Amino acid sequence: MVEDANAVILTFGSYRLGVHCPGADIDTLCIGPSYVDRDEDFFYTLHAILAGMEEVTELQPVQDAHVPVMKFKFDGISVDLLYASVSLLVVPEDLDISDVSLLYNVDEATVRSLNGCRVADQILKLVPNVEHFCTALRCLKFWAKRRGVYSNVTGFLGGVNWALLVARVCQLYPNAVPSMLVSRFFRVYTQWRWPNPVMLCEIEEDELGFTVWDPRKNPKDRTHHMPIITPAYPCMNSSYNVSTSTLRVMMEQFQFGNKICEEIELNRSNWVSLFEPYLFFESYKNYLQVDVVAADIDDLRAWKGWVESRLRQLTLMIERDTYGKLQCHPYPHEYVDTSKNCSHCAFFMGLQRKQGEVVEEGQQQQFDIRGTVDEFRLSVNMYMFWKPGMDICVSHVRRKQIPAYVFPDGYRRCRPGRPSNMQPAAERSPHRDADRNVSGSEDKILKRKRSPVRADEPNNPEKRQYISPQRQDSAAPIILSGQPLGPSVEYKPGVDNADACSNSSSVTFDSDESAACKEIDMSVSANLGNSNDGYSKEGVGDGSSQGSLSEGESEIYQQENGSLRSQNGLHEESETKISLSGGPEPGTAVELEPVEKAVPRAMVTSTA
Fold it and tell me: Compositionally biased, Basic and acidic residues: which spans (predicted)?
């Protein structure tokens, strides 16, 4: 048995799909015989062997993850290594990973580990043109990273999620070139009616008894906001991490992409505009800053990974405790302050009041999240492998207080001035340029007529009201321990920094101020006037069951996604309702009809 003992290493993820790029990690799966287990042999014996190799650096076992993994760098190349023990004494070199018999007598963690390879193979089998699929997927993954919506752990979408979404569009348009697939991707998912699932094939039932995604039988599956179902048995929702807030952010970005692609079709824009980076630190007025510190770089690597995995819980806690009225936007990037005398990184989260919330004149709307932050810090500090020096601090920062180290050049860029045709220079307030969002077009800014009153009169802030159809925010203060707290807090490893952090934080929204100083965010506003017609021309709204809404659900959808109405005397502007089915049955195709101007047939490529 010792002489015949062996293991097989397979790849999955972007490497197996052929869409990996420089700097990306390689997802690998080690399949071993039944007598080699995960806990003792893989995470203890193999870990010790790898730790003694010169080529291996940054070795980090994540044994308690949803899918247990060993992370490390081999000769500078990042590798994620999973392990699956199958019911075989000898693992054949030509093992057929798609064979369902491999799932006999294995645990749930092994099934999830095996499904990485099984799903990748199924995707390649189910797309009509693998080359076009890979090119479109490369492009859209690059776009998602530029727009800040590529991160499964933060609550957005990871590599397999984007692959499944692109594969579904390839099924709908089997003869489309990559540039057309990218354009149709945004059209389809801008109008998709979540939580209707995206599926490449019918959900497969089997006698093995594993739980498959089925909201009719499993109450937990009904809580998923953006189900994207894997095509291999047992079918699972690959995007269970998505929350209400992250879904809202992704839908805004889909609308942004759809608008750019519509302009490209009309030769009013180019592909470069699609990949403009998202200006996160110019999109909100209030942010939560989560600082993570540790004694050394090795401790920080493990501690940071744990904290990042819990940020999604902070988003859910804030949504829960404010009844969804305070919306969060976790940003899936980490920033390092090299000036600190300890290993450090920071994460940021944008905050805004829910769109359409009405506050009575002269009153304040306050969100007290002190208990929420305390609960989050308590859950994070329960880390099983905590060491002295590991600490976390949550603080509130205004947009003007954002630390300089988050910007690419180490300093905040000057904001471009407002166009002269928008407002006379004499009427502009010095506060307005600092509070406006410059992430997109300003063609749809609504103007308010002001009375010719003096600027120094009481209750007359030198501000002017603007309302965006996509975001209504306020410049409300967040008070921490009675006083606004900026990013200048000193962190001392091993010392409780609770007094300096936001373990007592409240968010206050003033109705007068919010009416006078709204966020301007035209980057994600899309021309939805012809959305019904554009979708039905492609043959998607054919009354099929997938993506459709019942009459009762349609009424709820209209209530939740109805027209946004401006406040304080501004005229009303409504957006066209989108009533359509989410798509035809899995595997069916959509015939392309000619449009006025086709998307340039040049292949869409991306550079990482």
Answer: 428-445, 453-465
